[in-house]
Structure formats: C-alpha cells, structure tokens
Design goal:
The chain contains no helices and 5 strands. With about 100 residues, it is mostly beta strands. A hairpin with a 6-residue loop joins strand 2 and strand 3. The termini are far apart.
Length: about 100
C-alpha cells in the first residue's frame, strides 16, 4: 500500500439538504421554511416532534405559503440566510393566498 499525501486526496463536503413547509413568503426573494424531525427522548423513549425555522433564498419568488420545498445549505447570503430553495416538491392550493395570481 502506498500512503497518500494530504494534497492528493480531494476534500469534498456534502451540503445539508432539508425538506420542509413554507410558512412565510412576505420578504423579497426569501421564504421561511419549517422543517420537522422526530427525536427520541433519552429516558422515556417517546418520539417528540422538533421544529426548526430556516430562512431560505428564493431567487425567482416562486414559492408560496403551504408549498413543500427542498432547501440546501449555501454560503451566508445575509445575517440570517444560509439556505437556498432547490426545488418545489408540491403545492398546497388551499393554503395559498387567493389574491395573488401565479
């Protein structure tokens, strides 16, 4: 076996990916996405629902409230924004604002 030097091994980092629900689209090119996950309690072994809110960059303002979206980690875009909308996975027409045409 030949040892590999640190300069020849590529260092690739995978970006974090989360699926969530858009809860606010009032900002320009920014949406607030709620991501839910289940966490097991250490002692009682009951699963609890944990929520995290992420501000994600939406370049084309295509996301609406109620949409299911996939966000990926990115470089810091503002003081709060470190995520970017990658895809809209599904639309929820009942939660969308009826006054805004698509």
């Amino acid at each position: 076996m030949t040892p590999t030097s640190p300069t020849t091994t590529p260092t690739t980092t995978r970006r974090k990916v989360r699926d969530g629900l858009v809860v606010s689209d009032k900002m320009d090119k920014t949406v607030v996405v709620v991501v839910e996950r289940l966490v097991r309690h250490q002692r009682y072994h009951k699963f609890r629902r944990r929520r995290a809110r992420y501000k994600a960059h939406d370049e084309t303002n295509r996301c609406r409230v109620g949409d299911r979206v996939r966000i990926v980690e990115s470089r810091p875009l503002s003081a709060d924004k470190r995520w970017t909308v990658q895809a809209v996975l599904g639309r929820n027409e009942s939660l969308a604002d009826p006054g805004i045409p698509e």
